[in-house]
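Board notes, transcribed. Complex of a protein with calcium ion.
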Amino acid sequence: MARIAVVEDEADIRETLALALGREGHQAESYRDGAEALLGFRQKVPDLVLLDWMLPGLSGIDLLRILRNDARFARVAVVMLTARATEVDAVAALGQGADDYVVKPFRTRELLARVKAVLRRYSADQGQGDSVRRIGGLWLEPATYRAGSEKGAFDLTPTEFKLLEMLMRHPGRVFTRGQVLQTLWPDDKAVEDRAVDVHVARLREKMGDSGKAIETVRGVGYRLKDSA
Ligand code: CA
C-alpha cells in the first residue's frame, strides 16, 4: 500500500485512476493542476506521483523538475502520463528524472502494473539501506565504500564510488550532468559538466568489461542498464 498522487486535469482519467488505485489498496490523492499538487505534496509527501504532462499552468515536466531539485522529494517516484509518444519526449521525461512514462491512451491495468514495478524498485532500494546492493554482475557495499564485479573489487576514488552508487540506487533512471554535479559536489558551483564526463570515463575504465553497464543517453546524461 502506497500514497499515490494523481495529477491530471481531465476529470474522467483522474477519477478512473483514483478509483482503480483505491481498489488496489493504495491511498490516492487527486490534483487538477501542478500548483495544487505542489501545495499538497508539501503537506504530505507522496510515495509515487502519476503526473500528466499537459496541465494548465505549471506543466507536468515543470513540476517534475521542481520535485527533482528538492531534497524533500528525493524518495518520490514519478510516472509521467503523456499523449506525446515521440522519442524526444520520452528522453526529456526520463532525463528530468521520471522513473517511467505511459503513453495515452493507456489501459488502467497496464498503468497499475507499471506503478507496481516502480514501487517495487523503490521499496527494494529502501529495504537495502546500507547492505550490499547487487545489479546484474555488479555489487556495491555502501558501508565499506567498495564496489566490484564477479571478477573482483574496483579500485575507485570516493567520487567514483559515489557516482556508481548514485547510478546503482536507481537502475534505469537517467541522470543529467546537472543532477550528477548536484549529488557529487553540492557546494561547489564552479565544477563544470565536463567534469562529470571525465569521472564517468574513468569509472568505466576501472570497471573493465562491466563499464558497458553505464550507458550514455545522448544529449541528456547517463544511466545504469536496468539489468546490467
Ligand atoms: Ca492533460
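The longest strand covers residues 77-82. The mean pLDDT is 88.
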